[in-house]
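Issue 218. Parser rejects a valid record. Input:
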Amino acid sequence: KNKKTIKSTLNRILRLKIEKFSMIEVGVYNNMSFTVKDFLKIAFDSVNLSWSDYVEIDPDLYRPCEVNYLKGNSSKASKNLGWVPTVPFRDLVLDMVKHDIKKYAKL
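Output the parser choked on:
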């Protein structure tokens, strides 16, 4: 169900972009904010692992001018394309993990 919704939404966005060549640029966001750690926790928890056992954070690699907080705004996509986020972040992460498990299980 979620994959069909995502494909349908992307197809609609592409169709509208082609039809409206001069359309203003829009971002597709879910108006929520998540950290990389949130992503890692959901992904690793889904396969009964602790992300901290596999991921090392090296403070020396932090960029000095990094923006600490970013949050997208989907109001333009909603207004111009009728798009609204329908797939919760957790479900998206779980779908990505399931996809990778299937893909790499064949190797």
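Fixed in the parser; the record now loads. The chain has a mean pLDDT of 77.
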